[in-house]
Amino acid sequence: MLRITALVKYVPELTDRRFAADFTLDRDAAPGRLSELDEHTAEQAISLAEARRADGGEAELTYLTMGPPSAADALRKALSMGGDRAVHVLDPAMHGSDAQATSLALASAIKRIGYDVVVCGMASTDAGLGLVPAMVAERLQVPQISLASSLSLNGDRVTIERDSQRATETIEGSLPALVSVTDRTGEARYPSFKGIMAAKKKPLQTWSLGDLGIAEADAGLQAAYTKVLSATPRPPRGGGELVTDEGDGGTRLAGYLSARKFI
Amino acid sequence: MPYVLVVAEILDGSVLKPVQELLTLARRLGEPAVMALGAGAAGAAEALGHFGASHIFLTEDPVLDDYIVVPKVEAIAHVAAILAERGGLVAVLLAATPEGKELAGRLAVKLDSGVIADATDVALSHELGSVVTTQSVFGGAFTVQAAVVRGPAIVAVKANAVTPEPSPAVSQVGPQIEKLALEFSDLATTARVTARTERPPSGRPELTDATVVVSGGRGLGGPEHFSLLEHLADQLGAAVGASRAAVDAGWYEHQFQVGQTGKTVSPQLYLAVGISGAIQHRAGMQTSKTIVAVNKDPEAPIFELTDFGVIGDLFTVIPQLAEEIDQRR
Fold first, then answer.
1. What is the DSSP letter of A18?
2. Ordered alpha helix ranges (H), chain B
């Protein structure tokens, strides 16, 4: 049995992001969705399960998320694409958790689910710092085989291709492992009507910190190792000079750049 | 004075701008020590000393090149422990590249420390007694200041966070070099690089480090017209970028994509040519210091960001700009 756990995130829509009074991301005010990048996570996880079953093996795909009650929508969306079940880590005490507490909760849940391969996206589309997968991998003591533009599984060997800073690389590792995938892995499938109906019947469990054996004191704003001091809206940009080219657009642009010593 | 550990990727013995920037920032926090990774690191000692490094830790173990992430984390943690014992360690600074952020994340768990990624500034708050970082979040819409209350602070710093400056006080004897003999865990050798094809160098600066970036989008109309931008980029000493639309159309390589799912850039000057300015693109360039655009559509959202915009045909405006640059030099 190949046990796949896919980490997905529910994020506020791109245009509706703001801070609450305690400098946490206001996740209640804005409508949200399954992160666009995690559609690729779901797609690749489903493909791994399908490939294993096509080879006559067994596979089980569990989605995992952490977030407010509405985050369950992201799990249902992923389940409508495919996969078997989902786990939602939901606890008010998690509010304001930093990357440390987030990775602790996710790693604890992954251990409880049981796993051979953990699939996640390249970053979230809200905070977008890209720290959590590495931190989860360290807590699980598995390699992180990251930023795959393609991946394949052969027995307990996982192989990916990726574009690093200066080279194209092939990375090979053994399971258990954490793999992160980019939007270069290909289009994510659309949920079919049948898939949407089936998703409603798939098991979705909700776990609290207590279920994961994590003390409330070790989560949330109070426990955070980083403390936000201020969040300031950036002064609006623009209001700059806008000229219409009347045969001298390039010259005027050169004048602007020259005055600022770029030329 | 406590130490600050700078994780420096050395390329063929040279100290590239991102490392110079990290050392410039590190001097504000404490005494800079360097964990030098990469080929020819020994040859970079003098240049690192020039930017204030007092100690340089070296290893030439091939495990660091052949396996990803974990061996480097173990090497950095090893040096962090040495420095903590010698005089205290206030922070570890890394470049906020994809690899740098992975190292930062794993290291933070290993050292049980606070971690910040994509910092655009780092300082020491004597009042708080902690490292304070600045980040630009939500595609540049907010500036966030945060204190790392459990140290050593692990901070992945974005390129162009500071103008690199040589240290005013460079020791006559140069930095002290220490070679490491490392023993790696079994975990360190579980993810191996089985093939690596280096891309031919473009001769231009790295997109994420560049002081000037010239980017092209759908308005270019086809791959052949990117040569216009490459020529301009070479005149300006710039890197060339591309919008997702141009990359998805196959006109320019993915490694040059600027935007949410590509690279995030923060140069002194960003020149957007034939780019409408979709929100995904803006998320990757909005923090550029000066933004200039050429687009034939006066309604293009990119003009909401620009310090100077030209509404016009890029195929006449850009060649004219290039000619002007030649004449002014």
1. -
2. 17-29, 45-50, 63-66, 70-86, 98-111, 226-236, 244-248, 279-282, 314-328
Q: Tell if the CB–CB gap between A134 and B143 is shorter than 8 Å.
A: no
Q: Compute CA A157 distance to the chain's CA centroid, rounded to the nearest angstrom.
A: 23
More confident residue, A30 or B93: B93
From B112, B116, B143, B142, select the one nearest B131 (Cα to Cα).
B116
Predicted local confidence at residue A257, as pLDDT: 96
- Residue B182 pLDDT > 70: yes
φ/ψ of A187, rounded to 5, equals: -60, 140
pLDDT confidence band for B233 (50 / 70 / 90):
very high
How far A172 CA lies from chain B's nearest CA (Å)? 5
Q: Do B69 and A144 touch (CB under 8 A)?
A: yes
Position A17 scores a pLDDT of 63
Interatomic CA distance for residues A61 and A117, integer angstroms: 10
Q: HSE (CB half, 13 Å, CA atoms) of B48?
A: 33
- Does this model's pTM top 0.95? My answer is no
- Rounded to the nearest angstrom, the minimum Cα separation between B159 and chain A is 14
Least confident window among A53-67, B128-142, B315-329: B128-142
- The full DSSP string for B118-174 is EEEEEEEETTTTEEEEEEEETTTTEEEEEEE-SSSEEEEE-TTSS-----SS--TT-
Instruction: Indicate if the pLDDT at residue A151 is higher than 70.
Output: yes
pLDDT at A15: 60
SS3 A159: strand
> Tokens standing for A18?
């703001």
Phi-psi region of B309 (alpha: psi -120 to 50; beta: other; left: phi over 0): beta
Length of chain B in residues, anyone? Answer: 329
Closest CA–CA distance from residue B86 to any residue of chain A (Å) = 24
Q: How many A/B residue pairs have CB atoms within 8 Å?
A: 261
